[in-house]
């Protein structure tokens, strides 16, 4: 975030159309500074650089807040197959959000 503020001061708002927008990245996409696990801890690693999509968001001023949960290896249908817990509905925790992008859905 400090880098975005500095870039805004130096380059102006037109250079950073997403300045300050907070984003969460699905945990099967690399974001530098955050481990990538794909909800499979045994295969977790620390990426040295971000995936192109994340790098482009950051270059436009977005700030990565963290990673979102998912079914292991993004292969599930309802968001309940993760060692990090089931992704519950944001408005009703009795419901699951569904899909391999369950954590991303709840983040929205």
UniProtKB/TrEMBL annotation:
An example molecular function term from Gene Ontology annotations: hydrolase activity
SUPFAM superfamilies: Amidase signature (AS) enzymes
Ranges of compositional bias, category Low complexity: 96-108
Pfam families in UniProt: Amidase (PF01425)
Keywords: Hydrolase
Annotated Gene3D superfamilies: Amidase signature (AS) domain
Ranges for domain Amidase: 9-108
Residues covered by region (Disordered): 81-108
InterPro entries: Amidase, Amidase_dom, AS_sf
PANTHER family in the cross-refs: GLUTAMYL-TRNA(GLN) AMIDOTRANSFERASE (PTHR11895:SF169), TRANSAMIDASE (PTHR11895)
Protein name: Allophanate hydrolase
């Amino acid at each position: 975030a400090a880098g975005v503020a500095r870039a805004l001061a130096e380059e102006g708002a037109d250079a950073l159309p997403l300045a300050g927008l907070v984003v969460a990245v699905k945990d099967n996409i690399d974001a530098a500074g955050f481990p990538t696990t794909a909800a499979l801890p045994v295969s977790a690693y620390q990426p040295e650089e971000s995936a192109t999509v994340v790098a482009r968001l950051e270059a436009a001023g977005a700030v990565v807040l963290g990673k979102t949960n998912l079914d292991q290896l993004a292969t599930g249908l309802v968001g309940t197959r993760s060692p990090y817990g089931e992704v519950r509905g944001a408005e009703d925790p009795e419901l699951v959000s569904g899909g391999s992008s369950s954590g991303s859905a709840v983040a929205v």
